[in-house]
Amino acid sequence: MSQPSTADEQKYWDLWKKSKDPHAGDMLVKKYLPLVSYHVQRISVGLPKNVSREDLKSLGLMGLLDALEKFDPSRDLKFDTYASFRVRGSIIDGLRKEDWLPRSTRERAKKIEAKIESLEQELLRHVTPEEIAQEMQMEEGEVYTRDGLNRILSWATVPCP
Q: Fewer CB under 10 Å: which end of the chain, C or N?
C-alpha cells in the first residue's frame, strides 16, 4: 500500500484526533514507521551486537504510538519533529531501564577504557595498572577496582548511550 498524500494524511489526522479511528491510526503509523527505523539505525551503531534491533524497534514504536496520542496537529509543529524526540527518547529510556549500572559509574568506566586504548596505541603494548593510575591521576588500587568494573562492562548486556 502506498503512502498517504498530504490531503489524505490530513483526513487521517482529523479522524484520529476526533474518534481514534483504528484505520486512520494504522495509516499514520505506517507513514511514520521509517522514522522509527531511522532512529533505531542511528542509535544501534553505538551499541554492542547483542542488543537486538528488534527490541529497539519495539521501543521506538512505543514512542511513535505515544507521539500519535499526544500530538496536537493544530500547533505550529511538524509531527516528524515531535515524533523524533518521542521515538529517540523512548529507545534511550528503554535502554536505561534495562541497564544495571548507574550512569555515573558507566561514564567513569568509559573514560578509563578510552584512556587505556589511547595509551596502548601510543605505547604499542598493553599498559600496566600503574601507568593507567598515573595517567588518570588516581591511586593504583582504584585502577584495579575500576579496571575490574571495565572488564565487567565489556560483558554487560545492555550498555547505555
A: N
